Structures are given as structure tokens and as C-alpha cells.
Amino acid sequence: MGFTTALLTVLSFYLVAAVTLTPTAAQFACNSTGATCNGLVGYVSPNSTTLGHIKSLFDIKNLRNLLGANGLPPSTPSTHPVAANETLQIPFVCLCRNGTGLPRNHRPAYTVVPGDGLYHIAAEVFAGLAVNNISNANLIIVGEDLWIPLPCSCDEVGGERVVHYGYVVPSGATVEEIAQEYNTTQDTLLALNGLTSPKDLLAGAVLDVPLQVSANNAQKLSLQGWSWSYLLISIHLVVLCSRLIN
Predict the structure, then answer these.
(1) Element (H, E) at 216
(2) Which residues, in sequence order, are CB contacts of 105 under 8 Å at separation 6+?
(3) Is the dihedral of CA 131, 135, 141, 144 positive or negative?
(4) Contacts of 232 (CB under 8 A, 6+ apart)
(5) Domain assignments of the chain as residue spans, ordered by start
(6) pTM reported for the whole predicted model
(7) pLDDT by residue (tens digit) across 27-80?
(8) Buried b (16+ CB within 10 A) or exposed e, 63-81
(9) Are 12 and 21 in contact (CB under 8 A)?
(10) Other Cβ atoms closer than 10 A to 102
(11) Confidence tier at 242 by pLDDT (50, 70, 90)
């Protein structure tokens, strides 16, 4: 699916302590300075694992947030298996600043362990949702925390509130197919992602896909915070209806 190639151009690693790095890879545009919102990215698990492991890897505070983002019953245990190559939706809080969106409070962060290398962390541990953008490999120190800047945005699209979904482009996918699946338009995807032509789409890239949220669910989200069950019901219905129509 090309996760270890083109995805390495999407995000930047920051060292939480000791070293400050400037991101050079593309991020989702976010011009609502100071705004916070729900962020969502698709993570393709490289190996068989559990929900508990995914929760820890992405520093998700409550298991129920992960369950809600994936439409799983609240009673689902942390030991619930996740198959290799299974895609999970990762929820987090997005903060807009300096024209882009980033996870609030420098989360998630990854602690370097003995034997780690930059490529291993970026391409394998996070399945391409992080990029080896540190020029000096000697900066990686066992015990050091690396901030993983997942892409996100709080901007409205077409005057409507949306959730900007970080969608990993599978091999062979087209802009038109993705637009149809997520009930948006090809022009919207091209504009959001700075693409001049559908031919510019790369397998393995993380695409900014706007997910529609009904006004009723948007109000519930704003009142109740991380009410992912409300959000995902709306999103799943939109995607299901789109698939049935097409």
C-alpha cells in the first residue's frame, strides 16, 4: 500500500525536550488561530495488536474515545484484538496555530527505546504517520520523547463545520473515488490538499478529507466535548449512504 514511501513526506518529528526542529513537511492548513477541535487520522496497524496498545501508542486518555471513534460498543475491552493492516480511526484534540493544525499539548509522544532508528519509528511504529525529518541521527537518545505532529485542521469547508480526516491513500485510489466515498467533491479535495490535478495524488500520502457533521451533532460535540459516538454516527451514515447511492 506504499506506507513506507510517500507517507514519509507528510509529517515532521519534533523533539519534545532539548532540541527544537522546524517542520518542513506539508501539514493541513488551519487559519482559525487558537481554535481547538476534534482531529481524526486513519492508522493502519502494521502488526497484530490490541486496542490497549493503540491507546498507549497515541496517548489517548480514555479508551471510550478510541471506541467511539471506531464505532465499537462501550463495553469493548482494551484487550480487543486489532488485526495486521486493519485501519483504526485515531481521535485527538487539534489546535490551530501558525497557519496549521497540530495535536494539542504535544501529544502523542513516543519514547525512544534501545535499538530504535528514525526510519523504524517513522515508517514502522507509526506506519508512515510520522517522518524522519531529523538530519542528525545522533539526536535520537534512549529515553527521549519525540512529538508526533499528526495532521489536523479546525477550518470550515464551504461555510460548514467538518472534521478534517487524515486519510491514508491506498495504492490505485483516485481523487474521484475518495470524493465519492466520503460524500465530498473532487474540487474540494484538490483545493484542501494543494493539488493542481488528480494526477498529483500519491499512494501512501495522507489526504485531508472533510467529513460532514450535522448541525445537531456539531452542537452536541461542542457541549459535551469528546462525544465521538455522536460524531461517528453522522460520519458513518454519510459514508454508507454515499456507497449505497454509488
Answers:
(1) helix 215-224
(2) 93
(3) negative
(4) 68, 69, 70, 71, 89
(5) 35-108+149-223
(6) 0.72
(7) 899 998 999 999 999 888 888 999 999 999 899 989 999 999 998 999 999 999
(8) bebbbbbbebeeeeeeebe
(9) yes
(10) 27
(11) very low
Could you tell me if 137 and 157 are in contact, meaning their C-beta atoms sit under 8 angstroms apart? no
CA–CA distance, 17 with 176 (Å, rounded to integer): 42
Q: Are residues 150 and 28 in contact, defined by beta-carbon separation less than 8 angstroms?
A: no
pLDDT tens figures, 134-175:
555 556 677 777 777 788 999 999 999 999 999 988 889 999
Strand partners, 25: none
| Spatial CB neighbours of 227, under 8 Å, sequence gap ≥ 6 | 68, 220, 221
Mean pLDDT, rounded, for 218-223? 39
Residue with C-alpha cell 501558525?
98
C-alpha cell at 154: 479546525
